[in-house]
Amino acid sequence: MTRFALHEPPLLSRDPADPLARIDRTDAAALDAAWPAARVLKVGGRGKVRTDGAHVLLDPAVDVAAKRPDAAVLVGSDAGRQVWAVADPGLGSAPVPGEFDVDVSLGDLRTHGTVFGAAENRWLVTALALLNWHRGAGFCARDGAATAPGNAGWVRVCGTCGREEYPRTDPAIICLVHDDADKVLLARQPSWPQRRFSVLAGFVEAGESLEACVAREIGEEVGVPVRDVRYLGSQPWPFPRSIMLGFSAMADPEAPLRFHDGEIAEARWFTRGEVRDALALGDWAADADAPLLLPGSISIARGMIESWVDPR
């Protein structure tokens, strides 16, 4: 039986430290007192941030606001100083000539996550997840009254009934289906260009175990029964606020492929050699006339595929 494990933690899960755990997010006075020395990460549309090409750029908090804004969210620390994030929609558009210094540009997790440091990726992942949640949590689910942020952006409280709501994370499974030999099942969504393939994924439903979700999603998307479902690892995926839970599973490559729910436009079994050749080309952004292009390293999918190709 071919079993494999991830060679290394997913890219967005490589910062084990949790400096937020050492900060009392309920102590508003202490947070206010720390604001003048803090740094701020400005996050624009589609997760754009300012970068020097290798690192995210932080602003002195006092240059952003004299006092801590209610809409700021605490995302970490840097050299003993708190790091906060604020939404800056103006960063969502392309920079105009002269807007930035010559060494400053825009980047995001998808384009720069492979070069940012682990702590920087953690700040950005946390900022995206929190800011995306805040945008949709402005009113109480119980009585419809307006809510206000608290605890450094990690809770919203209803102004009428006092109900507290905490940041939402949507669990999703992502599964590499293989035949226990030399083939892997990869698929393409309708919105993806031709030749771009990845492993299968889908959201966990209410009352469902993760293993049951793997079987259901793969059955719905490609009509193939699976067995020997095994957990591999996880990573945050703040697009808009998910966590990807990686699994492997086995299936019969002779089983007919049926696309039941319209989420898959094409699925094929590829050999280990074909996948290894595709990995050598780079990722989806590669300008190559090849039959198969694979996700980049920012996604756990890449690590799953690499680990299957060369099991250790």
Automatic annotation (TrEMBL):
GO terms for biological process: NAD+ catabolic process; NADP+ catabolic process. Its cofactor is Mg(2+); Zn(2+). Residues 167-292 form the Nudix hydrolase domain. Its EC number is 3.6.1.22. It catalyses: a 5'-end NAD(+)-phospho-ribonucleoside in mRNA + H2O = a 5'-end phospho-adenosine-phospho-ribonucleoside in mRNA + beta-nicotinamide D-ribonucleotide + 2 H(+). InterPro entries: NAD-cap_RNA_hydrolase_NudC (IPR050241), NudC-like_C (IPR049734), NUDIX_hydrolase-like_dom_sf (IPR015797), NUDIX_hydrolase_CS (IPR020084), NUDIX_hydrolase_dom (IPR000086), Znr_NADH_PPase (IPR015376). It is an enzyme of class 3 (hydrolase). One of its GO terms (cellular component) is cytosol. It comes from the Bacteria. Keywords: Hydrolase, Magnesium, Manganese, Metal-binding, NAD. GO terms for molecular function: metal ion binding; NADH pyrophosphatase activity; RNA NAD-cap (NMN-forming) hydrolase activity. PANTHER family: NAD-CAPPED RNA HYDROLASE NUDT12 (PTHR42904:SF6), NUDIX HYDROLASE, NUDC SUBFAMILY (PTHR42904). Belongs to the Nudix hydrolase family. NudC subfamily. This is NAD(+) diphosphatase. It comes from Tomitella fengzijianii.
